[in-house]
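Ligand: copper (II) ion. Inputs:
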Amino acid sequence: MKMSNGQMGRRVLGFAVAATVLAAAGAAFAAGGTLGQPSPWEVTLQPSGSPVMDNITWFHNFLLWIITAITVFVAILLAIVAVKFNARANPVPSKTTHNTLIEVVWTIVPVLILVGIAVPSFRLLFQQLDIPKADLTIKATGKQWYWTYSYPDNGKFEFDSLLVADKQPRLLAVDNEVVVPVNKVIRVQTTGADVIHSFAVPAFGIKIDSVPGRLNETWFKATKEGMYYGQCSELCGKDHAYMPIAIRVVNDQEFTTWVEAAKKKYATNPANSYASIGAAAQ
Ligand SMILES: [Cu+2]
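Predicted complex:
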């Protein structure tokens, strides 16, 4: 096929743009992102902050290798067929219709691949669903459009957590953060007060629906101190995008101090007026 200079130019430009995008994505991939929050150009999972997320990340990469190997293998077979067995290269085709060995292989090998995927997959599912003995339970209630958290183990105080519009990180920062101790098993119980919401924090590898009339539970163990952000992940109405989840992970001593202060601060739960919800959602 002959190309004009214009066509050639456009094609080169297209390749250059594609290469730049890939390079930028590659750089983001290599950088590994920021712990606890999304980062620009991130193409992969957020860095892990819990043992469950470690395994999710491992499983994701494991599947990526398998799917890449299968894709490359099939592409090579297709290329061989196209080159070796086209009408010009192979004018008199063979009339073979069965090959027992190949048929056994292409039945057994996919089964083995699926078993190889199923084993770590079930192990991960059990790790997520079989909640270890909890050091601390918190309850997250999804509401249109904010979260209410209670600490039943620490005097049952409760507080509302609302988006703060002009604080960074944008659309993730809240007025009252959830505070939990590092390296402790935190059981999260969640429900919805009005419609279905979903409690999700990518760095901990948790996402669980908050359903009215139901108490769902999940768990995480934060392995590093810091801020971790998530969002409501079930379309719940007009301000669905404005009810972030912000979790501050601190050491034991800081946690005890915070609990004492929080008990006083949230003795009466004042943040629940319509005005404050409206202001935060703007
Ligand atoms: Cu929601």
